[in-house]
Amino acid sequence: MNERLDRARIEAAVRELLLAIGDDPGRPELARTPGRVADSYAEFFSGIGTDAVAIARDGVVHAEDGDRGRLVIVRDVKFRSVCEHHLLPFIGVAHLAYAPGDQLIGLGTLSRVLDAVASRPQLQERLGEQVAATIAEGLDATGVLVVLDAQHQCVTTRGERQTGSSTVTVAATGTLADQAGRAEAIALIGAGVGTAGGPAAGADRGADA
Fold it and tell me: Is the pLDDT of residue 152 over 70?
C-alpha cells in the first residue's frame, strides 16, 4: 500500500484541473469526480514504496533437485501500469521465465511481483528491467526473462491515434541474457509449451503459492 498517497491533495488538484480545462467542478455531474480519481490513483500507484524483492522472497520455496527443472515459464499474465510521460494507462500481458537455482517461486507470487512494480508511474522498458531484476534478486535465479506486450493509451487515444499498435519489450538477466538461453525461452513462450503439462509447467510443481 502506498502510504505516501494524499487523497485531499489529489482531490484538490483534480478540481483545479477541471477549472483549468474550462469546466465547472461544482456541477452535479462532477461532484464526486475528485474522490473517484483519488480512489483510482490509490490503486494505480499502490506499488510506490512497496518492496517487490520482499514479495518475491516471501513466495520462495526450497526445491529438491528433481523438482527444479531447467526452465519455468508463466505466459499471458495480465498487467496494467501508468505511463509517467502522460499519466495515461498502458495495459498488456507479460510472459515471465526463469532458470531456477536452489529455489522455486509460487506462480501467484510472480504476478504479485509484476503488479507491485507496475503500480507506479512507469516506462514499459524500465518495468521489464525492474521485474527481471526483482525476480533474479528475490529468487536467486540463474536467469530471468521478461517479455511485455502492451497497448499505451498515449499512443492509441492521442496524437496519431494508432489504435491497433502495441509495444513489445524484452528484459533478461543471467543465463537467459545469453543468446542461446534467451532464444530458447522466447521460442517456448511463442510455442505455448508448458500450458498443458509440458516441461515449463512441470518445473514449478508444488510452488503455486
Answer: yes
Q: Does domain 7-44 have CATH number 1.10.286.10?
A: yes
Residue 81 grid coordinates: 501500469
Annotated binding site: 83, 86, 154
Residue 91's Cα: distance from chain center in Å?
A: 9
Q: Render pLDDT for 78-104 as a digit per residue (tens, 0 to 9).
A: 999 999 999 999 999 999 999 998 889
| Domain extent listing, the chain | 7-44, 52-202
Residue with cell 521489464: 128
Annotated binding site for Zn(2+): 83, 86, 154
**Nearest-angstrom CA–CA distance, 98 and 12:** 44
Please, what's the b/e burial string for 111-149 (b: 16 or more CB within 10 A of its CB; e: otherwise)?
A: bbbbbbbbbbebebeebbbbbbbbbbebbebbbbbbbbe
Mean predicted confidence (pLDDT) in 132-151: 96
- Provide φ and ψ at 83, rounded to 5°: -65, 130
The CATH code for residues 52-202 is 3.30.1130.10
Alpha-carbon dihedral 111, 112, 117, 123, rounded to 10 degrees: 30
